[in-house]
Amino acid sequence: MDSAGDYFADDDYVRTDLGTGRIHDRAGTRLVGLPDALLTALNQTFDAECGPAAERVLQTAGRDWGRGLAERLTAELAEHRGEPLAETTVARFQADLQSAFRQLGWGVLTLDFRRYDAGILVAEVRHAPPGGPADALLAGTLAGLLSQVAGRELAAAATPNIGDLKRFVIALPERLERVADALHRRRPHDEVVSALERVRV
Predict the structure, then answer these.
(1) Packing angle between helix 132-150 and helix 36-50, nearest 10 degrees?
(2) How far apart are the first and last CA of the chain?
(3) According to a count of CB atoms within 10 Å of the terminal CB, is the N or C end of the chain lower?
(4) pLDDT given at position 168
């Protein structure tokens, strides 16, 4: 186990200043809570104002935030552990990311690396914020964050939810483009993954 401990530990990561009405993480970054009702209102507004482009707008916002989050976490974890992220094991990286997602209120994240050699990652998030805007934001966030860490442009797309389980496929953008029809028709998750495995680019 890591001697530096969990950087995102519940009792130390979030700090509340009741005098100013602000919440910060342990690095001093301000945090703001967004209730589900606000996410629903955002989705309705984006749909009304952007029409079919609403999902793309939300994904782009998530991607930008995901890249920034990756840069911030890379620096903070390197300082916390005394080693660069590039030297961290995949298991440690996944544990850090899971802990960060829980602490930031995005839910319980699991990354499936079984198809890594085929250029496919699968992410599952339980207890994520509900609704379409969360799917688009999470897809963008995962794409931006993992692109930044991998040093290569990746894209992510949501597949149909099962209850409170949200699933995403992550791959090179040109691979996801080749299965765009299956994604658009909301084909089952396993069917999308199988189609991605057959794509050669």
Answers:
(1) 90
(2) 39
(3) N
(4) 97
- Which CATH number is 45's domain given? 3.30.1380.20
C-alpha 30/C-alpha 135 separation (Å) is 24
Measured distance CA(146)–CA(167) in Å, rounded:
15
Task: Please state, as a whole number, how many other Cβ atoms lie within 10 Å of the Cβ of residue 147.
Answer: 20
Residue 33: how many other CB atoms lie within 10 Å: 7
User: Is residue 174 situated within a structural domain?
Assistant: yes
Does the residue 2 lie in any domain?
Answer: no
Range of the domain at 94: 35-198
User: 168: which strand partners?
Assistant: 123, 158
Report the number of distinct structural domains present in the chain: 1
pLDDT in tens, 75-90: 999 998 888 877 888 8
Instruction: Read off the pLDDT band of 176 (50, 70, 90).
Output: very high
Backbone angles phi, psi at 14, to 5 degrees: -100, 130
Does any domain span residue 51? yes
